[in-house]
Design goal:
The complex is a heterodimer of chains A (356) and B (402). By secondary structure, chain A is α+β, with helices and mostly antiparallel strands. Chain A has eleven helices and ten strands. In chain A, the strands form two sheets. In chain A, strands 1, 2, 3, 4, 5, 6 and 8 form a seven-stranded mixed beta sheet that branches. In chain A, β9 and β10 form a beta hairpin. Chain A is globular and about 75 Å long. The mean pLDDT of chain A is 97. Chain B is α+β, with helices and mostly antiparallel strands and 402 residues long. Chain B folds into three domains: 90 residues, Butyryl-Coa Dehydrogenase, subunit A, domain 1 (Orthogonal Bundle), CATH 1.10.540; 108 residues, Beta Barrel (Butyryl-CoA Dehydrogenase, subunit A, domain 2); 138 residues, Up-down Bundle (Butyryl-CoA Dehydrogenase, subunit A, domain 3), CATH 1.20.140. Chain B is 46% helix and 14% strand. In chain B, the strands form two sheets. Chain B has a four-stranded mixed beta sheet with strand order 1-4-5-8. In chain B, strands 2-3-7-6 form a four-stranded antiparallel beta sheet, with no helix packed on it. In chain B, a hairpin with an 8-residue loop joins β6 and β7. In chain B, α4 packs antiparallel against α6, α8 packs parallel to α10 and α9 packs antiparallel against α10. Chain B is globular, with a radius of gyration of 23 Å. The N terminus of chain B is likely disordered. The chains are: A alpha+beta (356), B alpha+beta (402). The structure holds flavin-adenine dinucleotide. Flavin-adenine dinucleotide sits at the interface of chains B and A.
Chain lengths: 356, 402
């Protein structure tokens, strides 16, 4: 665990208390049962914004707290633990794009609304089912953007899309020229194919050539933070289960074969935490972000994949039931693993960054 | 060297192959080509179409759904060689064995070994004809891996047993006609107090409650037994022999679950062919993503080695019996099946994670449910951890400190 300052500890404790009391997994189950396409509870999101959680990386001048990425990651990790459904990650990523690439005017126009939760933003990059930011066919001419984006997260609730076109990033507001087709994935959250048909687009002209990569690295690291919370929760609940389930007249936790399995997972989880926190700290320092982001998301992918599989396995038949939460983590896990870079993409990218 | 008989048996094989080809031409409805077996489907029974029904009856009449079972009980009475020919010819025309389920996979072979003449005559023919569905009443809330801890009690009431207790995770319990159960007839001995009892699912006092699974379906149940009267004639073997009989049944289950043969068919197209549809290839037709290409090759090599292992095991067990080697096959086959499903998702990206609704092909949605259901394969039939215990102790002789 990274060494936290007092501010960060308070923020984490507050997030931990709120999620466990106000947003346990039963809240996600309600959202799922409700079946609304935007798939989150607006009241809960308003409360989260009120507590300042959407504005953690937004400057105070624009209504945020400017606590930084490690702080944002702490909150997102707690949300991940209870599978809290909200567009907080998507909105934070959208805000970071505007911070990196937006003019003063664009920042003043959008950031306060994103921080207060009145506006919801999301990032729309990929055009196929696998992450591939080098392959974009979306174009802009005369200020009008056209293209099709696949599996845009939190699209149904979004007011503002940060859209990657072949020549840069643009802001597009929801409206007539933007149409959504729902894509229901295993996590039963909001995803859609979004078609932009000559939509008015406002270019994010700042941020230089690496703007898209820089924004994606933020998406990778914040997504990895959510995955860290999920992995931690699955690990904890599995450990608890093994300590109370009795077979062969002894609790399962006393079988050495299982002790070693949990010890292995604990080692993996330790690495995952270091990788994710390292990514968040790299964002705060501005140093070595691309490499740190790749390590963070690749480790998050690897470890959450194992932990979510082992979690089901070690629960036996119980783990296969919908009544039990563990399967919900498994189904969300694979969606996040594939988002902003699956494992193969990240390994290739890591080698490329390393020059081999 | 006895040349003559060899030629004879060879020409006998050819005659049999002829017979099969003719049978298939006559009875296999082309519309079922490449389709699976409705009765054996894992997540529940689909309604039989008239074509499916006709095909099941035609195969059932000959006993070819259970080709090597004895003819006097409705089986095909075929040699293993003939059964292999039957399989080959069916595969050639895209046909499949329409008769399956737990009766064929595990209960039938066990009853043939341990049942009385009367029991075999009563229960085997309907299994061979695909008319009766069986379910497995083994697990209880506190008897999973520690199966022998089962508590469901069958009390001797003179002319019948009175059964009280609960089973759980009963696959297909809500659709089954009958259940083969492990019950307790004696509380004083954990293993010797277990008996193997057949119970009608529609008997008064049997109640099923479906449980929803992570894959969305409810293919298994909690099953409650309250004062269920079971005739004494439904006891297989003697009282107290249930553990021995029940374990033999598990060996059949494991051999089937590892699925050397059946899984190969289930898996269909190679991963590489699927990958070429979802990811870019370079000028040489190679998968452009080198990491993914490596992952696929790595999997396919191990899958190839597993199929060879399954074949070797079946060649070596000439008698066609089952043994502890079933534990090795089950452990390997189920793990590889899961790995394959995970790799498919990596290949397909988010398109490979559709839950329902627009934007996904039937195959894609089916793949997702199969990926989730597949997580059960390393849990049921004795979990992988339990197989490892069996391998370590019984095959490798690594006994607990004594
Ligand atoms: C889809 C599905 C269908 C099923 N169908 C049927 C059915 O039709 N009929 C039926 O009777 N049962 C059925 N089962 C039940 C299945 O056989 C049990 O789930 C299985 O035996 C495991 O028992 P359990 O669920 O109680 O897990 P537990 O025994 O509680 O095991 C939990 C975990 O601990 C591990 N473990 C347990 N003991 C040890 C040990 N000594 N050393 C190391 N690790 C250990 C297990 O491997 C597992 O990972 C089904 C289960 C599933 C998931």
């Amino acid at each position: 665990m990274a060494v936290l300052n007092e501010e960060q500890e308070m923020l984490r404790d507050m997030a931990r208390e709120w999620t466990s009391k106000e947003s346990p997994v039963t809240e996600f189950r309600k959202v799922r049962a409700g079946g609304a396409e935007e798939a989150f509870d607006r009241k809960a999101y308003a409360t989260m914004a009120e507590m300042g959680w959407v504005g953690v990386v937004i400057p105070e001048a624009h209504g945020g707290s400017d606590f930084g990425w490690l702080s944002a990651g702490l909150v997102v990790e707690e949300l991940g633990k209870t599978l809290t459904a909200s567009p907080l990650v998507a909105s934070t990523i959208a805000a970071s794009a505007i911070l990196l690439g937006g003019s003063d005017e664009q920042q003043a126009k959008w950031l306060p609304g994103l921080a207060s939760g009145e506006i919801i933003g999301t990032l729309a990059v990929d055009e196929g089912s696998r992450h591939d930011p080098a392959k974009l066919e979306t174009t802009v001419s005369g200020g009008k953007l056209s293209g099709t984006k696949a599996f845009v997260h939190e699209a149904h609730g979004a007011d503002l899309f940060v859209v990657a076109a072949s020549d840069g990033l643009y802001l597009v507001e929801k409206g007539e020229a933007v149409s959504l087709s729902t894509r229901k994935l295993t996590d039963q959250r909001s995803h859609a194919e979004v078609v932009f048909d000559g939509a008015a687009a406002d270019r994010l002209a700042g941020g230089g050539d690496s703007l898209l990569d820089d924004v994606l690295d933020r998406a990778r690291i914040l997504t990895a933070s959510e995955m860290l919370g999920m992995a931690q929760a699955v690990f904890d609940v599995t450990l608890d289960y093994l300590k109370q389930r009795v077979q062969f007249n002894q609790v399962l936790a006393t079988f050495q074969a299982l002790q070693h399995r949990m010890a292995d997972l604990f080692g993996d989880l330790t690495m995952m935490r270091s990788a994710v926190e390292g990514g968040l700290q790299a964002l705060d320092s501005g140093f070595g972000v691309a490499r740190a982001a790749t390590i963070a998301k690749a480790e998050a992918n690897r470890v959450l994949n194992i932990v979510s599989r082992e979690g089901v396995q070690l629960h036996g038949g119980m783990g296969m039931t919908d009544d039990y939460d563990i399967g919900l983590y498994l189904k969300r896990a694979r969606v996040l693993e594939a988002s902003f870079g699956g494992t193969a993409f990240l390994k290739n990218r890591f080698a490329t960054i390393g020059g081999y | 060297m006895a040349t003559q008989p060899q030629i004879d048996s060879h020409s006998g094989e050819e005659a049999f192959r002829e017979e099969v080809v003719q049978f298939l031409a006559e009875h296999f409805p082309p519309e079922l080509k490449g389709k699976g077996n409705a009765l054996a489907s894992v997540e529940g029974p689909d309604q039989e179409t008239p074509a499916q029904e006709g095909w099941r009856k035609a195969v059932g009449e000959r006993g070819w759904g259970t080709p090597t079972w004895p003819k006097e009980y409705g089986g095909g009475g075929l040699s293993r060689k003939q059964a292999a020919i039957l399989n080959e010819e069916m595969a050639k025309v895209g046909a499949f064995n329409p008769i399956g389920g737990m009766g064929v996979m595990m209960f039938g072979p066990t009853l043939l070994e341990y049942g009385s003449e009367e029991q075999k005559l009563a229960h085997i023919p309907p299994i061979s004809r695909g008319e009766i569905r069986w379910c497995q009443g083994y697990s209880e809330p506190n008897a999973g891996s520690d199966l022998a801890n089962l508590q469901m009690m069958a009390e001797d009431k003179g002319d019948h047993y009175l059964v009280n207790g609960q089973k759980t995770w009963t696959s297909g319990g809500q659709w089954a006609d009958k259940s083969f159960c492990l019950v307790r007839t004696d509380r004083s001995d954990k293993h010797k107090g277990i008996s193997f009892l057949l119970i009608d699912m529609d008997a008064p006092g049997v109640e099923v409650r479906p449980i929803q699974m992570i894959s969305g379906m409810s293919p298994f149940c909690e099953t409650f037994f309250t004062d269920v009267k079971v005739p004494k004639g439904n006891l297989v073997g003697k009282e107290g022999e249930g553990w021995t009989i029940g374990k033999r049944l598990l060996q059949h289950e494991r051999t089937n679950l590892s699925g050397g043969g059946s899984m190969a068919r289930l898996m269909g197209a190679s991963l590489a062919d699927i990958a070429k549809k979802y990811v870019d290839t370079d000028a040489d037709g190679q998968i452009a993503d080198k990491v993914l290409r490596d992952r696929i090759a790595d999997f396919e090599i191990r899958w190839g080695a597993f199929l060879l292992t399954a074949r070797r095991a079946s060649d070596e067990s000439k008698a066609g019996g089952v043994s502890e080697i079933s534990s090795v096959l089950k452990k390997l086959g189920t793990k590889l099946g899961q790995e394959r499903a995970e790799l498919m998702i990596e290949i397909m990206g988010l398109q490979g994670l559709g839950w329902e609704g627009e934007g996904f092909s039937e195959a894609e949605l089916g793949g997702v449910r199969a990926w989730l259901f597949g997580k059960a394969t390393t849990i049921y039939g004795g979990s992988t951890e339990i197989q490892n215990n069996i391998i370590a102790k019984r095959v490798l002789g690594m006994l607990d400190h004594q």
